[in-house]
């Protein structure tokens, strides 16, 4: 079984350094965790990239929620994506839904083109709000660069979504199910053995890396606890 990936949410270089020191394999760089993560400033990305040598996935999301907004908002986000790419970003996090809960293919396609054909990206927890998860995966099956779904299996978190995660892991050879499952959203250490036994190799933590609270910095010791649990 592949060594599990541990991805940690970072807000800036101090978080990034602590996450790497604790054994994180990758960062998800965001601003405004209270809004579930928005696009960080280019300067923040540059500072993080200079501070660590693990991969950094940059959030592309301008507002809370899973709508891309109107044409002007999407155009602005695509411009920011191109600017981040010019700054050196090569991995991203994105994902939008239409009002009826389907994948917003127009927005996703525009952003995928903006980040470039060689970029790798995660479709984030918009999948947990989709009207039909299977239909969404099939909608996105041919999107270049999509290699990961960040999901709790349920909009309410891993406790309620674990059966869905296990079922989707068992379908990993089917069209639309090849991207890695990255479990995040109410993930706790007690979930790890069951998820690992199902072959899931991606784990994503935010609040769990900040035992002093969401507004506290990342704790290297907290990340190390997760690293040890995943490697056990």
Explain what the structure shows.
Strands 1-2-3-4-5-6-7-8 form an eight-stranded parallel barrel, surrounded by five helices. The chain has 232 residues and is α/β, with parallel strands linked by helices. Strand 7, helix 7 (192-197) and strand 8 (202-205) form a beta-alpha-beta unit. Helices cover 37% and strands 16% of the residues. The chain starts with a strand and ends with a helix. The model has no long low-confidence stretch (mean pLDDT 96). It has helices spanning 13-22, 42-51, 71-87, 105-115, 133-139, 158-169, 192-197, 220-231; strands at residues 5-10, 26-29, 56-59, 91-94, 120-123, 146-151, 180-183, 202-205. The chain has eight helices and eight strands. Helix 1 packs parallel to helix 2 (42-51), helix 1 (13-22) runs parallel beside helix 8 (220-231) and helix 3 runs parallel beside helix 4. The radius of gyration is 16 Å and the shape is globular.
The biggest sheet, with number of strands, parallel, antiparallel or mixed sense and barrel status, is: 8 strands, parallel, barrel
The number of helical runs is 8
Proportion of residues in helical segments: 25-40%
Question: What structural class results from the helix and strand content?
Answer: alpha/beta
Termini, distance in Å?
Answer: 12 Å
What's the shape? globular
Order of helices and strands: EHEHEHEHEHEHEHEH
Detail the poorly predicted runs. Answer: none
